[in-house]
C-alpha cells in the first residue's frame, strides 16, 4: 500500500517539507518524519490503527460526527485520528473526509498526503524540527498524551527515539538535542 511513488506525489503539495533550512536540518526532518511513521505503522505494516474500537469523536470543537460514519481511529502513515483532524484535512484537500474517513486507508497518495499535511499544518512537527526544538517535540505533537509525561520515556516513545537516531545515522547527520519527551 505504501509506495515511494505515492509518497513523492503527496509531498509535491508541500514544497517546504524536507527542504527547509540547512542540509542537516532537512535530513533531520526526513529522519524525524520516517521515525514517527515507522512507529505509527509498525514499519509500514499497518494502514489502519490496530485497535479500531476507539471512536475518537470530540464535538467540543464544533465538528460533528455524522451518523453512520465510521469511527475516526487512526489511518495512514501518521495514523490520522479524531473527527476534527479528518474534517480539517478534508477541507484542505477539498474532500469530505469527515463523512468518509476510510478514504485515507484506501488511496495511497491520499494516505501519504494526510500524513504530510498533519506534519506540516496541524501538529507543528515541521516547525519543531526546522526551528531546532528537537525530535522530542514531534513525539509530543503526535502522541504526547499517551507517550510523554509519565516520568520516563514510554516504550513507544523510546522506539521513536531509536528509529530517529537510526535514520539520522543512515543519513549521516547528528540527531541534535532534545530527543525525548
Q: Could you characterize what this model shows?
A:
The protein has a domain at 4-45 and 113-171: Lysozyme (Orthogonal Bundle). The chain starts with a helix and ends in a 10-residue tail after the last helix. Helices cover 49% and strands 0% of the residues. The chain has helices spanning 4-11, 23-41, 83-93, 108-122, 125-130, 135-147, 155-171. The longest helix has 19 residues, at 23-41. It has seven helices and no strands. Helix 1 packs across helix 4 (108-122), helix 2 packs parallel to helix 6 (135-147) and helix 2 (23-41) crosses helix 7 (155-171). With 181 residues, it is an all-alpha fold.
Q: What percent of residues adopt helix (DSSP H or I)?
A: 40-55%
Rg computed from alpha carbons, rounded to a whole number of angstroms = 16 Å
Low-confidence stretches: none
Overall pLDDT confidence: 94
Shape type:
globular
Q: Biggest β-sheet: count, sense, barrel? A: none
CATH architecture of the domain at 4-45 and 113-171: Orthogonal Bundle
* Beta content: under 5%
Secondary structure: number of strands: 0
Helix/strand-derived class? mainly alpha
Spell out the helices and strands N to C. Answer: HHHHHHH
* CATH domain fold name of the domain at 4-45 and 113-171: Lysozyme
* CATH top level assignment of the domain at 4-45 and 113-171: Mainly Alpha
Distance, first to last CA: 31 Å
Count, helices: 7
Amino acid at each position: 500500500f505504501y509506495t515511494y511513488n505515492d509518497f513523492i506525489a503527496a509531498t509535491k503539495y508541500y514544497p517546504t517539507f524536507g527542504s527547509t533550512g540547512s542540509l542537516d536540518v532537512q535530513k533531520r526532518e526526513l529522519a524525524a518524519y520516517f521515525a514517527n511513521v515507522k512507529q505509527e505503522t509498525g514499519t509500514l505494516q499497518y494502514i489502519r490503527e490496530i485497535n479500531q474500537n476507539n471512536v475518537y469523536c470530540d464535538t467540543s470543537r464544533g465538528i460533528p460526527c455524522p451518523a453512520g460514519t465510521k469511527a475516526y481511529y487512526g489511518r495512514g502513515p501518521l495514523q490520522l485520528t479524531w473527527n476534527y483532524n479528518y474534517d480539517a484535512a478534508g477541507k484542505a484537500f477539498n474532500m469530505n473526509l469527515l463523512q468518509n474517513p476510510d478514504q485515507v486507508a484506501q488511496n495511497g497518495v491520499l494516505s501519504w498526503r494526510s500524513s504530510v499535511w498533519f506534519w506540516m499544518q496541524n501538529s507543528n512537527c515541521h516547525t519543531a524540527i526546522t526551528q531546532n526544538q528537537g525530535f522530542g517535540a514531534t513525539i509530543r505533537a503526535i502522541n504526547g498524551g499517551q507517550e510523554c509525561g509519565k516520568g520516563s520515556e514510554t516504550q513507544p516513545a523510546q522506539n521513536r527515539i531509536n528509529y530517529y537516531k537510526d535514520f539520522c545515522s543512515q543519513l549521516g547527520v547528528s540527531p541534535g538535542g532534545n530527543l525525548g519527551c
